[in-house]
Amino acid sequence: MKNKRDSMVAILFTEPVLGPDPRDSGEFLSNKHWLEAAYCIQNGQTTSFIDFEGEVLSEWKSSTIQAINWPKDIEETAEVESGANRYNQIKGQYPNAWTKWLDSEDDKLRSEFEQGLQLEQICQSH
Predict the structure, then answer these.
(1) Distance (Å, rounded) from C-alpha 84 to C-alpha 76?
(2) CB 34 within 8 A of CB 8
(3) Which terminal residue of the chain, N or C, has fewer Cβ atoms less than 10 Å from its own Cβ?
Protein backbone atom coordinates (compact mmCIF):
# COMPACT_ATOMS: atom_id res chain seq x y z
CA MET A 1 0.00 0.00 0.00
CA LYS A 2 1.26 3.42 -0.94
CA ASN A 3 1.96 6.02 1.75
CA LYS A 4 -0.17 9.19 1.38
CA ARG A 5 2.99 11.30 1.48
CA ASP A 6 4.20 9.54 -1.68
CA SER A 7 1.61 11.59 -3.61
CA MET A 8 2.33 14.89 -1.85
CA VAL A 9 4.77 17.71 -2.62
CA ALA A 10 7.49 18.17 0.02
CA ILE A 11 8.68 21.76 0.47
CA LEU A 12 11.96 22.26 2.35
CA PHE A 13 12.73 25.68 3.85
CA THR A 14 15.89 27.49 4.93
CA GLU A 15 14.18 28.40 8.22
CA PRO A 16 11.01 27.36 10.07
CA VAL A 17 7.84 28.80 8.49
CA LEU A 18 4.14 28.49 9.27
CA GLY A 19 2.33 26.04 7.05
CA PRO A 20 -0.83 23.95 6.93
CA ASP A 21 -1.18 20.70 8.80
CA PRO A 22 -2.43 18.16 6.20
CA ARG A 23 -4.26 16.26 8.95
CA ASP A 24 -6.44 19.16 10.13
CA SER A 25 -7.08 22.85 9.44
CA GLY A 26 -4.35 24.05 11.80
CA GLU A 27 -0.94 25.54 11.07
CA PHE A 28 2.44 24.67 12.51
CA LEU A 29 6.01 25.94 12.35
CA SER A 30 8.45 23.68 10.50
CA ASN A 31 11.38 23.52 8.06
CA LYS A 32 9.37 21.06 5.93
CA HIS A 33 5.74 21.09 4.81
CA TRP A 34 3.69 18.63 2.72
CA LEU A 35 0.90 19.62 0.29
CA GLU A 36 -1.36 17.90 -2.23
CA ALA A 37 -0.52 20.44 -4.94
CA ALA A 38 -0.91 20.14 -8.69
CA TYR A 39 1.67 22.82 -9.51
CA CYS A 40 3.32 25.97 -8.18
CA ILE A 41 3.77 29.49 -9.49
CA GLN A 42 6.91 31.48 -8.68
CA ASN A 43 6.99 35.20 -9.33
CA GLY A 44 10.36 36.05 -7.84
CA GLN A 45 8.98 37.24 -4.52
CA THR A 46 6.58 34.44 -3.61
CA THR A 47 5.88 30.85 -4.51
CA SER A 48 2.22 29.80 -4.55
CA PHE A 49 1.16 26.15 -4.45
CA ILE A 50 -2.06 25.44 -6.36
CA ASP A 51 -4.42 22.48 -5.90
CA PHE A 52 -6.09 20.45 -8.64
CA GLU A 53 -9.10 22.82 -8.68
CA GLY A 54 -6.89 25.88 -9.24
CA GLU A 55 -7.14 27.21 -5.68
CA VAL A 56 -4.08 28.49 -3.77
CA LEU A 57 -3.18 26.05 -1.00
CA SER A 58 -0.24 27.95 0.48
CA GLU A 59 2.14 30.74 -0.38
CA TRP A 60 5.61 31.47 0.98
CA LYS A 61 8.46 33.88 0.26
CA SER A 62 10.53 32.28 -2.51
CA SER A 63 13.73 33.20 -0.65
CA THR A 64 12.79 30.84 2.23
CA ILE A 65 12.33 27.79 -0.03
CA GLN A 66 15.37 25.54 -0.21
CA ALA A 67 13.88 22.73 -2.34
CA ILE A 68 10.59 21.44 -3.75
CA ASN A 69 10.28 17.67 -4.12
CA TRP A 70 7.43 16.60 -6.40
CA PRO A 71 5.94 13.09 -6.17
CA LYS A 72 7.92 10.51 -8.10
CA ASP A 73 4.85 9.04 -9.83
CA ILE A 74 4.02 12.24 -11.72
CA GLU A 75 5.16 11.84 -15.29
CA GLU A 76 7.40 14.67 -16.43
CA THR A 77 5.68 14.91 -19.81
CA ALA A 78 2.27 15.34 -18.19
CA GLU A 79 3.72 18.01 -15.90
CA VAL A 80 5.24 19.94 -18.82
CA GLU A 81 2.08 19.61 -20.90
CA SER A 82 -0.07 20.68 -17.96
CA GLY A 83 2.17 23.71 -17.37
CA ALA A 84 2.10 24.66 -21.05
CA ASN A 85 -1.68 24.31 -21.18
CA ARG A 86 -2.04 26.45 -18.05
CA TYR A 87 0.29 29.09 -19.52
CA ASN A 88 -1.69 29.19 -22.79
CA GLN A 89 -4.99 29.35 -20.92
CA ILE A 90 -3.83 32.32 -18.83
CA LYS A 91 -2.27 34.10 -21.85
CA GLY A 92 -5.54 33.60 -23.75
CA GLN A 93 -7.54 35.21 -20.96
CA TYR A 94 -4.93 37.85 -20.04
CA PRO A 95 -2.77 38.68 -23.10
CA ASN A 96 -0.42 40.87 -21.03
CA ALA A 97 0.43 38.10 -18.55
CA TRP A 98 4.23 37.70 -18.13
CA THR A 99 4.81 40.86 -20.18
CA LYS A 100 7.10 43.54 -18.80
CA TRP A 101 5.15 46.66 -17.86
CA LEU A 102 5.99 50.13 -19.06
CA ASP A 103 6.48 52.95 -16.55
CA SER A 104 3.25 54.49 -17.86
CA GLU A 105 1.33 51.32 -16.93
CA ASP A 106 2.80 51.41 -13.42
CA ASP A 107 1.61 55.03 -13.17
CA LYS A 108 -1.86 54.04 -14.40
CA LEU A 109 -2.03 51.21 -11.85
CA ARG A 110 -1.00 53.53 -9.03
CA SER A 111 -3.59 56.11 -10.11
CA GLU A 112 -6.39 53.52 -10.30
CA PHE A 113 -5.52 52.23 -6.84
CA GLU A 114 -5.47 55.77 -5.38
CA GLN A 115 -8.86 56.45 -6.99
CA GLY A 116 -10.28 53.47 -5.07
CA LEU A 117 -11.04 51.22 -8.04
CA GLN A 118 -11.88 47.63 -7.12
CA LEU A 119 -9.16 45.01 -7.64
CA GLU A 120 -11.21 43.26 -10.34
CA GLN A 121 -11.57 46.55 -12.27
CA ILE A 122 -7.84 47.20 -12.06
CA CYS A 123 -7.04 43.64 -13.21
CA GLN A 124 -9.35 43.96 -16.21
CA SER A 125 -7.77 47.23 -17.32
CA HIS A 126 -4.28 45.74 -17.24
Answers:
(1) 12
(2) yes
(3) N
Residues in Cβ contact with 60 at an 8 Å cutoff, skipping those fewer than 6 apart: 11, 13, 17, 19, 46, 47
Q: What pLDDT, in 10s, does the model give residues 31-49? A: 999 998 988 999 879 999 9
Closest CA to 50 of 32, 30, 68: 68
C-alpha count within 13 angstroms, C-beta hemisphere, residue 58: 22
pTM here is 0.55
| CA dist., res. 33 & res. 75, Å (int) | 22
Q: How far is CA 103 from CA 90, 100, 106, 109, in A?
A: 23, 10, 5, 10
Please provide residue 64's backbone torsions phi and psi, each rounded to the nearest 5 degrees. -90, -10
